[in-house]
Amino acid sequence: MHNEISSDVLTLGAMKAFALGKRAKWKDYVDLFFILKIHDIGEIVNKAK
Predict the structure, then answer these.
(1) Taking the CB of residue 13, how many other CB atoms lie within 10 A of it?
(2) Non-local CB neighbours of 20 within 8 Å, separated by 6+ positions
């Protein structure tokens, strides 16, 4: 179950990173701040591809 949650957080991180390029709302930066405590930027970038 932990892997499923981690995967969902990684997916959310990829969507937030993509959103920053489109709208750059402060809440996306806050969400990414906490997601980066769990996943590194490389994982998020790879997921966003």
Answers:
(1) 23
(2) 28, 29, 32
pTM over 0.85: no
| 14-42 core/surface letters (b: 16 or more CB in 10 A; e: else) | bebbeeeeeeeeeebeebbeebeeebeee
- Sequential pLDDT tens for the chain (49 residues): 556 666 788 998 898 888 888 887 888 889 989 999 989 999 988 888 7
Asked if residues 32 and 20 have their Cβ atoms less than 8 Å apart, the reply is yes
